[in-house]
TrEMBL record:
Residues 36-208 form the Metallo-beta-lactamase domain. Gene3D superfamilies: Ribonuclease Z/Hydroxyacylglutathione hydrolase-like, Winged helix-like DNA-binding domain superfamily/Winged helix DNA-binding domain. CDD domains: metallo-hydrolase-like_MBL-fold (cd16278). This is MBL fold metallo-hydrolase. SUPFAM superfamilies: Metallo-hydrolase/oxidoreductase (SSF56281).
Amino acid sequence: MMNIPERPWPTGTSEVVEPLVRRVLAPNPSPFTFTGTQTYIVGAGARVAVIDPGPDEELHLAALMAAIGDAEVAAICCTHTHRDHSPAAGPLSRLTGAPVIGCAALAYEDEGPRADAAFDTSYAPDRVLRDGDKLSGPDWTLIAVATPGHTSNHLCFALEESGALFTGDHVMGWSTSVVAPPDGDMAAYMASLDKLYAREDRVYYPAHGPQVDKTRQLVRGMIGHRRQRERQILKLLVEGLAEITAMVPRMYKGVDERLWPAAGRSVLAHLIDLEQRGKVSRVHESWSLLD
């Protein structure tokens, strides 16, 4: 995990990151959003798309409207429906008349300890994109890339003209993605990482943290990290540690203990994956290796 840079951050400022892409940082910094949610405006002409409009914050909406200016908004696209990504979609749609197009609606009741935002129950898309579906404007084409795992409805968006990929929370340069059951799925997440590794995207623009230029190198490292966590879990089971509450202190030494309950959700995601692959079994909260 990368250290959060010193203030000031470019909150509310429209930054040009490449000719067809601008970025506006929302005022919602936190331990799980880094300096805040980054909303992207795609297109340099009269029609643009907005990716991950972010939280329903008056200052952020005002900054987005200023950045959009006189352009028509062709689509408001959401990668997934956590509350730091999609709540501004409805208000921005009402301000611009643009349709909300992107991931499917998902409002999952989850009372467990979280290390990310809860789900946005207000999200109501006008159109749901499937893997490979396209949106286009006069100078841009966005292609939906289904990447379930962090959430079951997660999408990335590929900008055909420049080779950029907007990765939401699936791949970030500052931290690994949270995979928290019951909706977060480790097997799906790993398959989605493999899917991105097989691509040749030039740059990643995540919703939090800096852009990623060494795209396949980062994804390879993330796959290795998850496999290393899996090996840790199997080793601890061999040593006789049968419960997640006993595993977490060993696996997350040096991590703030207040984050341990949320870290346990990631361990649970790995154990569920291992169970589905026939490597472990459980009785209530106790886990064991299968021969």
